[in-house]
Amino acid sequence: MTAAGRKRGGVKNIGGALQIAIDGPAASGKTTVARRLASRLHVIYLDTGAMYRALAFLALQTRTDVDNEDALVRLCDGQQIHVVLDPGAPMGFRIAAGGRELDEEALHSNEVTAIVSTVAALPRVREAMVGEQRRIASEGPVVMAGRDIGTVVLPDAAVKIFLTASVEARVARRRAQLEAAGVDVAGHRLAEEIEERDRLDRSRPVSPLVAAPDAHVIDSSSLTAQQVADEIERIVNAAAGR
What we know:
Layout: E1 2-6, E2 19-23, H1 30-41, E3 44-47, H2 49-62, H3 69-79, E4 81-85, E5 94-97, E6 100-102, H4 104-107, H5 110-120, H6 123-137, E7 142-146, H7 149-153, E8 159-164, H8 167-180, H9 187-203, E9 216-219, H10 225-239
Parallel strand pairs: 1-4, 2-7, 2-8, 3-7, 8-9
Antiparallel strand pairs: 4-5, 5-6
Helix pairs in contact: 1-10, 2-5, 3-6, 5-9, 8-9
């Protein structure tokens, strides 16, 4: 896997080593909030979940058994997942797998969503992904969203956030997100998928979904993305002594 380039604006009033880790379950709002926060702070944003989704997409395209860890690692090494950190792109970055740039519709298809937890639970797959994520973070200030950023990927991040939200709120958000991407999914099916994803993410033996001991926990159920971003920015300013 490689990060093929970086387009960025200037970093305004932020230390060069700033790392903000935003974790949380599916559809908790971390992606939207992380993108908004990164734009405010003029730093790079990366949704690490997209990297696992890109590999899941590749597995589907190549008919690779998602329970075969060796085959997935070979696929990851052979096809390569390229991440281009580009604030001007629709997702805040661009990602390609197997020579094809993937959009949000491809990454969040029902088929990819059904297997991504299985792919992400494999230790050697996570090892490869975490190594690349740390390399990206080492290049400069970053807001990184995922499920193990504060606990595994960036354990020394200056600010760690763990976003939670009710299942009902998360279903509404994910449905709106998918509809905007042209994907139509019934609400009850989304609820089942989200609850199953929670179970798999929290119970996996490697890098389970859990708040870091020093994370600020924010329940975003009744908050807008703007309000959550405001709260995180206050936390960042406090951490910086402002």
